[in-house]
Amino acid sequence: MGGKVDKLIERLAVKPGKRIRLKNIDASDTSGLKDKEEAAELLAKNTTRMGELQHLLYAENTRSLLIIFQAMDSGGKDGTIRHVMTGVNPQGCRVVSFKAPSAEELDYGFLWRIHRAIPPKGEIGIFNRSHYEDVLVVRVHNIVPKKIWQARYEQINAFEKLLCDSGMVIIKFFLHISKDEQKQRLQERLDDPSKHWKFDPSDLSEREHWDDYMEAYEDVFEKCNTKCAPWYIIPANKKWFRNLAVSQIIVETLESLDMQYPEPKNGVASLKVD
Asked: Residue 62: which of 259, 270, 269, 271 has the closest Cα?
């Protein structure tokens, strides 16, 4: 099982220049992993390892990590963040949720509020939705003209390259659920009074645009998938696999940086506490 997990970062990565058809990707796929209990053990190891790597990221203080989550409504962004990031120190990790822009934010370019929220060196930033809403929602609902949202693909690539050139590592996850799975999850929210607060009536109207969103996401994967800011499509119908896959990719990405503790200050090694 471990060997299959080690290959997830390659298996789930969007290949550069490849046209993605989400309808051809099984949202219930688990890459051959069938043991939910063993997956939970591997997730626990990954969360522990993530904590160690976060400490090293903070000590090195030359890079930061930005993790972007996108998904359809009820796709599991909140649940993934809650389960996968349990091992990190909250002092060095910030989650930002991007909803409809405020009046102030609308007075600036669409990337202004994003740039304000990026993590400083040594820290981890998590975006629950992101600047990609400005080529998804605005496109599906015709909020801005086509020529405006089409130009944003290159603007996003340039923005992400600027961040990478400044020492930021970027990982982008699309949590891929099926339309049937979304229907079941939304119905569960309606059936459980304790989950009514999570339900937004607009979720039902958004389902009517499912195909339009799939097409918009496919264009994002084709036009905004770069070496420094890659996309990973995570089959997310099975929550246990979703969590394991995301954790594995984060751990492998951090380990690939070959981070080092900084050199101690002069004389520290010979000091003693009386």
From this structure: 259
With vertex at residue 114, the alpha carbon angle to CA 113 and CA 116, rounded to the nearest 5 degrees, is: 65
Eight-state DSSP code of residue 268: G
Cα distances (Å, whole numbers) of residue 174 to 171, 220, 224, 233, 252: 10, 11, 13, 5, 18
What is the SS3 assignment for 90? helix
- The answer to whether the CB of 174 falls within 8 A of the CB of 97 is no
**Beta bridge partner(s), residue 69:** 128, 173
Among the listed residues 154, 152, 157, the one whose alpha carbon sits nearest the alpha carbon of residue 109: 152
Which residue in 6, 29, 87 sits closest to 240, CA to CA? 29
Average pLDDT per consecutive 10 residues, the chain (274 residues; last block may be shorter): 74 91 97 90 96 97 98 96 96 94 92 97 98 97 96 98 98 98 94 86 90 98 96 98 98 96 79 81
Q: Which residues are registered as beta bridge partners of 65? A: 124, 169
Q: Given CATH 3.40.50.300, say whether it is the number of domain 2-255.
A: yes
Pair 69, 133: CB distance under 8 Å: no
Each domain of the chain, given as residue ranges in start order, spans: 2-255
Residue in this structure with the two tokens 């130009």, named with its chain if needed: 151
- Whether the model clears a pTM of 0.85, i.e. scores above it, the answer is yes
